[in-house]
User: Fold L,D-transpeptidase catalytic domain from Stieleria neptunia.
Amino acid sequence: MQTIKTAAVVVLMLTVLYGGYVSLTTPPEPLPDEIEEILVIEEAGGSAFGAGEAVASGLQLDEPPPGVLTASTEAMVQPAPLPSPMPSPLPSSTANSAPAPAARANSGTFGSSFADLPPKLESSVDRNSAAAATITKLPAVDPGAPGVTPGPVDSYASTPGDFRLPDPDAAAATFDPTRGAAFNGGPAGFTMTDNSPTTAVETLGNPPAGENRGLINAFKSADAMFVKGQLKEALATLSVFYGMPNLSPDQRQQLLSRLDPLAREVIYSRRHLLEPPHRVTASETLVEIADKYEVPSQLLANINQVDDPVTVLPGTELKIVRGPFRAEVDLTGQQLTLFLGDLYAGRFEIGVGNDPAPKPGTYTVQEKQTSHVYYDRSGVPVPAGSPDNPYGKMWLDLGGQISIHGSPNTVQPTQAGCISVAGDYADDIYGILSQGSSVTIRR
Assistant:
């Protein structure tokens, strides 16, 4: 086995040696004829462009172009040594031997490299020497040329520090109303007179005094939305005007005649105009669904006409309202208004009592009961369900002994108690306002 390995190594070495011998002894392939015509092959192995080619390109061999070293300047200028292993730009015997031909010193010779480029004369040759003057020479300076002297920095234009706005009183004192021509570019018959501003406003179509142009435009927009079936958008457009002060009785009547039916259809009908329908799963109850959307379960039962809120069949689609609702109580106008977010959600007539008298402020519904014992001023209790109990069938505790409650009268609120609504509407208020709803009381 050892003999076979030794033989293999010997054969490999002989193969390598034979390949090297063949590459060294095989002559190079001859150059094409068109290349040999323009090259002069020297005995030393160097090459340069022929004289005919140099003349054809416009170069004079006896006078090299600027930046090219000749034999004389090559002997005078010694380049800085390059770090190893870069070759020296010139042979070591060049400076001490006979000058080389000019074509050999040309940096553009065939076969040269970046190491053969001559160094810049400015870093090696004395600027005062005659050789440097003949190679690089600056143009002469014309002593008669005009000079440019830069001005100081603060000579640029700037706003003076004492700038002041014109005085209106001084301008009015110098105003001459007799000068100039009357303005005739407006509506027909318009002139610059004392009554011109009022005349111009009325002529350009502005509404007369007392007319709310914004409300009129809102009516038009809401009516157009209603025709297109955009009921929620119409309700939102008009809801912002509900609490606007200084509305005339006619304007308020027009506003309420649109808000009430829109709120009834958008919020309390079974149409899915607020949220996508909710499909009941096998593990859900109506109370859990109502808690998820922050509304009383009674509201969802009333809207969806659910007879038994405890058992709702899986797969039932429910109309969803996302709460909570809030209420605003107007003590002066004796009205309670409901809102769902920014949407108007209905109004109820109220009675304002003094046991205790409600105070303006913002409250939160803390507790809800369908029946509550009433205590008169002397502390005598009136049981729930009694005709003398002013709370009726609904009592919402707002804290501080202030409450919203029903009435023993089914169609009229009572003046007893605190804040009362008619008995027929007590169930609606109870089913809309949830524990945690905000109630704002104002005069």
Summary: The domain at 326-442 is CATH 2.40.440.10 (L,D-transpeptidase catalytic domain-like).
